[in-house]
Amino acid sequence: MLNNYGIDIWSDENFIIEDGLAKVNHKCKPSLISLVRQIREQDFKGPLLLRFPHITKKQISTLYDTFNNSISEYNYKGNFNAVFPLKVNQLPNFVHPLIKNGEEFNYGLEAGSKAELVIAMTYNNSNSPITVNGFKDKEMIHLAFIAKSKGHDITVIIEGLNELETIIQVQSETNLPCPNIGLRVRLHSGGSGLWAKSGGINSKFGLSSTEIIEAYELLEENKMLEFLTMIHFHIGSDMNSIKPLKKALRESGHIYAELKNLGATSLNNINIGGGLAVEYSSYERTRFYSLREFASDVIFTLKDIAKQKGVDEPNIFTESGRFISAGSTVLITPVLELFSSEYDLKHLNLKENNPPLIAELNALYTDMIKRTAYEYMHDAMDHMESLLTLFDLGYIDLQDRSNAEILTHQIIKKAIALLEVEDYEDLKKLDENIQEKYLLNFSMFQSLPDYWGIDQEFPVMPLTHLDKKPTRSASLWDITCDSDGELPFNSQRPLYLHDVNLEKEDYFLGFFNVGAYQDTLGMKHNLFSQPTEVNVVFKENEVKLEKIIESQKIIDILDDIDYDTRDIKDRLKENLDTNTYQILKKYLNENSYLKTTWS
Ligand SMILES: *Cc1c(COP(=O)(O)O)cnc(C)c1O
């Protein structure tokens, strides 16, 4: 049985398997391994982050096209707008192409902090909207006024009445033009999925109905109603079902209509936040709606409410981030080691007279044929248990123990090879005991923080060997010295990889859909920094590697955490001859990831 690692579920046809290789399904369809080799030839070793701006572009146009089609279909009078929430990925290699690719749609940016607002007001396309969410102080609100006076179409969405009071204050203290104002509503309907707490009556964010009325009155008193343009909600990330969205739409749609009927004449936008889900699993679909369904539900519901309450159909804003960015980035990790390679037959050193159980293991190994493979493998594992007990009691020596370990591993390997894994189901029963551990040159904490923190599954697949049966049930280990840096084998969602000899060939794993949230959430645990990243750009029929940013040098990492690097160098220089110090200096100027023959 060949394994396609669930690519039909998670790749959205961005990647395909062809000739045993994982390929980018675009233009000249380069294999990922060919890109990796090109980068490594330039001496960038260690893990890599490959970014594919054409995938981001595809997501942006899919989002706009789907909504605009629904708008025509329902003859909806409002228009469709979208902004990218910078929280999801703020890095320049991602953001610059995003802004360029979004220009034709007037795709804008959403900021949730002062630093993100600075990115938005510096780089946003001039005709595209900016929305500002999150908790704000006077300085952040002042920043929004400054953005407005630079000519940006900016809407400050308030999370509480105090923010509105601050807007009124800044308005009176400066003579800058006032940005548009949005109200984030605290819904009584909650979200779905892991992040449901972003919505709901007890949510961290938004105004209660009493506060909405107060906000309206405050704006009216201060003759600022003309700036109230938007109602906003966000029910949480990665919604697996559309039902909570429909409820939230009804609730916020009625709030919009009521305020409009009260006299909020400039109010003409509903911002439905983010939450569009991405398929992360290699085993089953987890998103139970299509984008088309999502768009029609939004349009249909808002149209219905507008009709019922006799108000204009609102323009629609979305802030989906995960949907736009996840697919654009692939993390590639070299496999450094298969742990069982320590148990090579060449190290076997049998004695003239071996303890009976070891002699038995040797016989199991030699005599095993396909028919007896399961049985002998079981026997071997039982013997191994007993031999370890004998060692603890002092009845066998270290050489015996080494022989026992080698023979047991070889028996397992031979059994798997003989069985040719025709029978995954049967083999699965044994999986827990016959796993292979793959050591990967990366840090889970830096590159897959959501796996470490919230058990987020990410699709994983080798870049090569895809025309061969994977025969080893795999657990994956990173190079941090933290035992949490492991993706253990899970028999419910088994990962099978190939039995490779790393002395003869290289083997890389790709983790897909890592473009949302992982980059800046990643942490420098053990002082491993962001991997080397590269933008892969397609020009006609060739591929260009652009904007290579090398993983941080050791000395810069230390500088970042506020060590005095001059002091470090001075101290290191002491008691070393010049030559040795030069070598040491070279090491300080390299990154922390491991460098072995292949890695
Ligand atoms: C996080 C966030 C988003 C993005 O959510 P996704 O699930 O990534 O689409 C949008 N809007 C707001 C207000 C957010 O806080």
TrEMBL record:
Which Gene3D superfamilies does this one have?
1.10.287.3440, 1.20.58.930, Alanine racemase, Lyase, Ornithine Decarboxylase, Chain A, domain 1
Alphabetized UniProt keyword annotations: Decarboxylase, Lyase, Magnesium, Metal-binding, Polyamine biosynthesis, Pyridoxal phosphate, Spermidine biosynthesis
Which PROSITE patterns has this protein been placed in?
ODR_DC_2_1
Q: Sorted alphabetically, which SUPFAM superfamilies does this protein's record hold?
A: Alanine racemase C-terminal domain-like (SSF50621), PLP-binding barrel (SSF51419)
* Keyword Lyase (UniProt): yes
Q: Name one GO molecular function term.
A: arginine decarboxylase activity
Keyword set includes Cell membrane:
no
Q: What class of enzyme is it?
A: lyase
Q: Which cofactor does it need?
A: Mg(2+); pyridoxal 5'-phosphate
Q: Which residues form the Arginine decarboxylase helical bundle domain?
A: 351-424
Task: State its Enzyme Commission number(s).
Answer: 4.1.1.19
Q: Which residues form the Orn/DAP/Arg decarboxylase 2 N-terminal domain?
A: 79-326
The family annotation for this protein states: Belongs to the Orn/Lys/Arg decarboxylase class-II family. SpeA subfamily.
Function, as annotated, reads: Catalyzes the biosynthesis of agmatine from arginine.
Tell me what this protein is called.
Arginine decarboxylase
Species per Swiss-Prot/TrEMBL record: Arcobacter roscoffensis
Query: Gene for this protein?
Result: speA
